[in-house]
C-alpha cells in the first residue's frame, strides 16, 4: 500500500535536512583540503595551480617535527595512564555500590562540561605553586584529566553489555577472582578498552586549548606549534597539515570501527 503524500513529503524533507546538515559540516573540510594544494604562498580558493609544496613544508618544518615528537610522547603517556585509571574506576562504579558513587562519577565526567581553558589555567596555577611549571609531567596530567571521561564511558558501557554469567561460570568451576578478571572479564572488555584508548589518544594528540596554558617551547605539542605558526605566516601550510590530521584521524576511526565495532561499544546499536 502506497504511503500518503504527506508522509512521503516528510520523509523527503527529513532526508534533505540530514544532507544539508552533513554538507554544512563537511564543507569547511572540503574547502581546506582544496586550498592545501595551492601553489601560491597565500590561502585562496580555488587554487589556480596544484602543488604539494605545502605538504612538504608541513612535514619538514622544525617546530612541527618537534611538536609531533612531543605530542607522541604526551599522547602515549596520557592515553595509557587514562586507560588504566579509567578502566579501574569504570569497574568500581559498575560493580560496587558505595556512598558518594554518583559524586565520584560526576567528578570524573566533569571535564566533559568544564571548558578546557579553565582546566588548563587551573593546572598551570597549581603546578606553579608546586614548582612544576610547564614540564612534561604537568602536560601529561592535564591530558589525562581531559581524556579520562572518554575511557570511563567506553569501558563502562562495555561492562554494562558484558554477560556476567560467563564470569559466574568461571568462578563456579573454581577460578580465583584474579583469574576470572584476567582470563574472562578483560578479554571480553577488549573492544571497549581499545576504543577507549583510541579516543583518548586522538583527543590527547589534538588537544590545544588546555595545552596552550601548560606547555612551553620545549614541551609544546603539534597543535600549539600550529597556533604559533599561524600567528606569523598565512600560507597554506596550515591547510596541508589539517588535511593530514583529518586523513589520519578518519583512518584510525574507520579501522577501529571495522575491527572493534564502535557502534556496539558506544551503545549506538544493540549488541547481537
Structure summary:
The chain is mostly helical and 272 residues long. It has helices spanning 5-35, 53-60, 62-95, 101-109, 116-130, 136-160, 164-172, 177-188, 190-206, 209-214, 222-230, 237-260, 262-265.
What does this structure look like?
With 272 residues, this protein is mostly helical. It has 13 helices and no strands. Helix 1 packs across helix 12, helix 6 runs antiparallel to helix 9 and helix 9 runs antiparallel to helix 12. The longest helix has 34 residues. The chain is globular and about 70 Å long. 29% of the residues are buried. The model has no long low-confidence stretch (mean pLDDT 84).
- The 3D shape can be described as globular
Question: Oligomeric state of the chains?
Answer: single chain
Largest sheet: none
Number of strands: 0
The stretches of 5 or more residues where confidence is low (pLDDT under 50) are none
Tally of alpha and pi helices? 13
Radius of gyration: 23 Å
Cα distance, first to last residue? 32 Å
- Structural class, by secondary structure, is mainly alpha
Helix content: over 70%
Mean pLDDT: 84
- Helix-strand sequence: HHHHHHHHHHHHH
Q: What proportion strand?
A: under 5%
Keywords:
272 residues; globular
Helix-strand blueprint:
Blueprint: H1 5-35, H2 53-60, H3 62-95, H4 101-109, H5 116-130, H6 136-160, H7 164-172, H8 177-188, H9 190-206, H10 209-214, H11 222-230, H12 237-260, H13 262-265
